[in-house]
Amino acid sequence: MTSLAAAAADQPESLEAAIKGEVLRMYHEVAQHPEGEFHFYHGRRAAEMFDYDRTWLDRAPDGAVASFAGVGNPHLRSRPGEGQVVVDVGSGAGLDSIIAGWQVGPAGRVIGVDLNAEMLQRAGDHARAAGVGHAEFRPGRMEALPLEDGAAHVVISNGVINLSFQKGRVFRELFRVLRPGGRISVTDIVSAKQLKQSIVNDPKLWAS
Predict the structure, then answer these.
(1) Cα gap 50→40, rounded to integer Å
(2) 187 and 114 in contact (C-beta within 8 Å)?
């Protein structure tokens, strides 16, 4: 167990703060050095592996594709309609928000939420470069989304909920911001077996 994890093991609040810090650090690295080697799939290779339409990837800004760090493809089931509102929880460098923006068209709206201020800036730049001026990106936590009740027709999330220490609270927030009859499309990592406590207490493994 790392010294950081050992210090946090008996303090859930400290562990949660350590996880948050490690997540921010890890995805800052992906954004700054997308050409680097990481212990998870990222970039165009990952997007193609998860069946992203190659025409989307060709059309999207290179930076949005290179910094992609999702674990699946929420667009396979999200099906937003023209003029609808999509909320992207954990929007990162903006690839999923951009794709959603193309689907809802200029009459629609996309709201991306992320912890990382640098990612929010990059996502906004990428969306404008992609012609998705109807996307906005807000700072916020998935456990307390900066949105009013019933704001979205569709909520998407890609490889983010597993990073939260309070998953029940996250799902309550997703349903809170969803309109009646709306849809949630989440891709994520789920463990089929009980994890060792040494893994649970290691912020670096949570962030991966």
Answers:
(1) 13
(2) no
DSSP secondary structure, 43-54, as one string: HHHHHHHTT--H
pLDDT digits (tens, 9 = 90+) for 122-142: 999 999 999 999 999 999 999
- Kindly tell me the number of DSSP H helices and DSSP E strands found in the chain: 11, 5
Indicate the DSSP class of residue 121: H
Task: Outline where the chain has alpha helix (H).
Answer: 3-8, 12-32, 43-49, 54-59, 62-66, 75-78, 95-104, 117-129, 167-176, 197-200, 203-207
Find, among 126, 124, 78, 138, the residue nearest to 104 by Cα.
78
Q: Measure the CA–CA gap between 109 and 130, rounded to whole angstroms.
A: 14
> pTM score > 0.85 for this model?
no
Task: Record the tokens describing residue 171, joined without a space.
Answer: 């799902």
Q: How many CA atoms lie within 13 A of 54 on its CB side?
A: 3
The rounded distance, in Å, linking the Cα atoms of 74 and 185 is: 5
Do 137 and 124 touch, CB atoms closer than 8 A?
Answer: yes
pLDDT 10s digits, 4-45:
444 444 455 676 666 666 666 666 665 565 655 555 566 899
